[in-house]
Amino acid sequence: MSFGFFSSLPEGWQVTLASSAVAFAVPLLLAAIGECIVERAGVLNIGVEGMMLAGALAAVLGSYATHSPWLGLLAAIGVTLLMGAAFAALTVYRNTDQVVTGTALNLFALGLTGAVYFAVTQRLTAAGTPRLVGAKLPDWPIPGLASLPALGATLFSGNVLVYLAFLAVPVSAFFLGRTRPGLQLRAVGEYPQAAEATGTRVRRTRTTAVLFGAALAGLAGAFLSIGHVVTFAENMTAGKGFIALALVIYGRWNPWGVLAGTGVFSLAWGLAAVLGSEGRGKPEEVFLLALPYLATVVALVLRPGRTTSPAALGQVYLSG
User: Fold this and answer.
1) What is the DSSP string of 218-254?
2) Residues 253 and 39 sit within 8 Å (Cβ to Cβ)
3) pTM above 0.85, yes or no
4) Which residue in 248, 293, 255, 222 sits closest to 44, CA to CA?
5) pLDDT tens per residue across span 113-142
6) Nearest-CA neighbor of 291 among 318, 306, 308, 271?
């Protein structure tokens, strides 16, 4: 979509499209960049969805209890680091199947967050509090850029997670392509036996990558609950963790490719929001809600060129 097409839209549509696209892009970018690093190390963590969900609940509970969004962020990171440590302990050190373990993690998070949220809301209702409301992350407008039409009020007037999500792309690309630790991580994902022969600690590298990905998944969930809105809803991630997994494949395990894919899917979400705002209550709104997910499938199928994953992705590593 060109900027000329964007500027030709009515102002109200511009704001709706930009705000919806950014709100959709931020958690996707955070989760997908984290998973990109994890998979480049040879580990497939399909538990991203569960980590995001747990991070969202931890963030709103932490910010509600302390009245501080920053402590809510720390709570989200802390909970997902624990989940990441458990996942790494099972898959990296105990050599369990990564797909099965990740699936179990998703089911565990879905059930636990639902139970905890129900228990908390029951107590709040008994105490006369209508609902669980956390403390929202403050916006940090960038002088000059924040005054741009539509985009200024969304992309350049966001909170810290908006800027972190987009900054994570060049930083992770530089790390993977230009640093020695990044080269070692890529070697672990391609040929772990050779990497260990050169002195790289394969299990340590993979565990570090899993913990990094878990932390970003927690921040992605926190954006949903205290960065975009200020509450939690059951299954509020709505499959975004799985879309993040698809983005890594679409981007061919390259952060810049992940950014490009995120742009496609986020614009699809923005268009769904724009068109849906014009036809609320109509039957076709169901199709509009499905549009971003359909765009995910279509883009993966029609993606030109060959898709080659890291050679050791998902494989159990047995040190000699």
Assistant:
1) HHHHHIIIIII-SS--TTTTTTHHHHHHHHHHHTTT-
2) yes
3) yes
4) 248
5) 999 999 999 998 888 877 888 899 999 888
6) 271
